[in-house]
Specification:
Layout: E1 4-6, H1 8-17, E2 22-25, H2 29-34, E3 41-42, H3 46-50, E4 68-71, H4 77-87, E5 92-95, H5 98-102, E6 107-112, E7 117-123, E8 128-135, E9 138-142, H6 148-157, E10 161-166, H7 178-184, E11 190-192, E12 202-204, E13 209-212, E14 215-221, E15 230-234, E16 238-240, E17 250-251, H8 259-277, E18 284-286, E19 303-304, H9 305-311, H10 319-328, H11 337-346, H12 354-357, E20 365-366
Parallel strand pairs: 1-5, 2-3, 2-4, 4-5, 9-10, 11-12, 16-18
Antiparallel strand pairs: 6-7, 7-8, 8-9, 13-14, 14-15, 15-16, 17-20, 18-19
Helix pairs in contact: 8-10
Length: about 375
């Protein structure tokens, strides 16, 4: 019986194909509460493992015919756990890079219409959602947050022609791969009109229609989370809302803002959301993030406007109540968000390690 390490791509493939595996998370509970691997099992043994206490995992009682993958924050303490379980007769694997490495793991889910398809790329290790819209073998990528090879392999395998690569806004929780992906295909990145970016891009303005195959994608300016935030309405059926509106909450208005600016942005967000909820209530909303690790279940993260309005108390509040509620519920900011914004403004992060810079949960929503 061999005890070894496993990389995140292999574990992702196991989960994607439904392979039986027990994932043992040995981090302190406060770290697990921040983010976890879907389906993982937790034992709060971190301190005892650090001491190399042979009794640290005495409560583990798994089926020994099923492999065990151990995980911690960076892959070191979990290696101790893997060795202990191996010595107890388990087929064990330590997850290389731990949760930091796992942050780039992903899966997909799709919704299909007669004239177009939307593929949701879910960065399950962080909760970032990006999209490829496909119609008549033409494609548009929105909010690319994964290494560009992920999208490139999909586009090339399907023999798709990439027409646009766009963002909904300037991101603060992850490094945007939009510029890099666009350059791979010899096109200019498209972003909501702003005077902040330090590289050439195509302006996307309110009301603009982008043609992809035989469908239209309409840009709807929705300032609030950021001043340039823009949603994309696909053929009047699907709305990609970025960090403006989530399935159970709204975007935070405080990043890179003092209290007065946060009030102004929260007010803008209120009016942007009112603009959205005046649209056809049957429209399907697909957001830019989720606050929970994404299961490997092929079920897209989506909801209709009707359901969101019904299930989100914030959306029933007056403007004053809404603004006050948001400012009272501001969560901790994403880790390293100022540095991430700085890198996204220049469109180059070759001098940093993305895994280190993007560590931690996205913390984008208020509900």
């Amino acid at each position: 019986m061999e005890q070894s390490e496993i990389n995140t791509n292999t574990l992702r493939a196991w989960l994607d194909t439904g392979k039986k595996v027990n994932i043992l998370d040995v981090r302190p509970m406060n770290e697990r509460e921040e983010w976890k691997i879907p389906g993982s099992i937790h034992i709060d043994a971190y301190d005892e493992l650090k001491k190399k206490n042979p009794e640290a995992l005495k409560l583990v009682d798994f089926d020994k015919s099923i492999p065990v993958v151990t995980v911690c924050a960076g892959g070191k303490t979990s290696l101790i756990a893997a060795e202990m379980l191996h010595n107890s007769g388990y087929e064990t694997y330590n997850l290389q890079g731990g949760m930091k490495g796992w942050s780039l793991s992903w899966n997909t889910a799709s919704i299909v219409f007669d004239d177009f398809e939307v593929i949701q790329f879910r960065r399950t290790g962080k909760g970032c959602l990006s999209y490829i819209i496909v119609s008549e073998q033409k494609a548009m990528v929105i909010d690319a947050s994964l290494p560009v090879e992920t999208y490139q392999e999909f586009l090339d395998h399907k023999a798709l022609t990439l027409k646009y690569v766009a963002d909904t806004h300037i991101h603060a929780d992850h490094l945007s791969r939009t510029k890099e992906l666009a350059e791979k295909y010899g096109i200019r990145p498209s972003l909501p009109s702003n005077d902040k970016l330090n590289y050439p891009f195509k302006d996307i303005v309110d009301g603009q229609d982008l043609s992809i195959g035989n469908i239209k994608v309409k840009a709807i300016h929705t300032p609030g989370h950021t001043l340039e935030s823009t949603c994309y309405l696909i053929n009047d059926k699907v709305l990609l809302t970025g960090d403006t509106l989530f399935t159970n909450g709204v975007g935070r208005p405080d990043l890179k803002a003092d209290k007065e600016e946060a009030v102004k942005k929260a007010t803008l967000l209120f009016h942007s959301i009112q603009k959205i909820i005046r649209l056809d209530q049957s429209i399907i909303v697909m957001p830019g993030h989720t606050s929970q690790p994404v299961e490997f279940d092929n079920q897209p993260i989506q909801s209709t406007l009707t359901q969101i309005v019904k299930n989100t108390p914030l959306l029933k509040e007056s403007e004053q109540e809404f603004v006050q509620s948001l400012l009272k519920r501001i969560p901790n900011p994403p880790e390293n968000y100022l540095k991430i914004v700085e890198k996204n403004l220049i469109g180059d992060f070759t001098d940093v390690n993305p895994i280190d810079l993007e560590a931690g949960a996205n913390r984008c929503a208020i509900s």
